[in-house]
Automatic annotation (TrEMBL):
Coiled-coil ranges from the UniProt annotation: none
Catalysis performed (reactions): (R)-pantothenate + ATP = (R)-4'-phosphopantothenate + ADP + H(+)
One record GO biological process: coenzyme A biosynthetic process
Keyword Cytoplasm: yes
InterPro entries attached to this UniProt entry: ATPase_NBD, Type_III_PanK
Binding residues annotated for K(+), in chain numbering: 139
Protein name: Type III pantothenate kinase
Cofactor note: A monovalent cation. Ammonium or potassium.
EC supergroup of this enzyme: transferase
EC number(s) reported in the record: 2.7.1.33
Gene name in the database record: coaX
Species assigned in the record: Nostoc commune NIES-4072
Amino acid sequence: MGKIWLALEIGNSRLHWALFIGKKLYSAWNTHYLAESVIQQLAKCQTLDHLLLAISPPHQKISRENTSSSPPSPLSPPPLLVASVVPSQTAIWQTYPNTRVITLDQVSLKGVYPTLGIDRALALWGAGKTWGFPMLVIDAGTALTFTAADANQCLVGGAILPGLGLQFATLGQQTGQLPLVEMQNFPSLPSRFALNTTEAIQSGVVYTILAGIKDFIEAWWQLFPNGRIAIKGGDRTLLLNYLQTLYPEIAARLIVEQNLIFWGMREIVMEHKE
């Protein structure tokens, strides 16, 4: 059995966790940000069960991947690999013992630029190493991002725009007359030509985001007709459902996988073992 280690992606809104045994993903879950005092207490946990209890949400059962057995408890806090886009959070997690912060130079993508987000680089690397290059990754999170690499594992580039929730929030907070539309899983696509303000906001945000995704995907396939596309992020299921309604031929070719960043982190761990 392989060594137990933890992976932590510090996102703009939440913490995303994974527990690995060697290269096998045992479980994955999300939490809110934790206070520095809680992080300092983690090092004092005597068993893995106590550690997982401390960093998992109350009343939420951690989802286990491909296994029904419990992992053995290590004698000391397991190594923690951190990928972060929030510098203030990165700093406080370095109080946990045996922490390794992954930086852009550790990702073997070619042609990256210095300010490329580590989350985008890791997700692209994980997707490409799992399903092959050329690869385009769409991350439907707080921000909606597109990040791509060619068959030589060289960065093609990408784009960043506000995600669904951020667009709704911005309209509600930065205008005097428009209401705040809460981000929610609308049961179906909103009416395109709405007859009230709330639905007009829903229509404007949803249909323009879907049109943008379609346009980027079609441009990607013009460059790489056999290029693969993976989608992740908290809004992935909602957007996929909408795409299946409007553009089923596009939706059918998408790889849906939330754990792409963890696949990228695993690749780095495996590379450094060899």
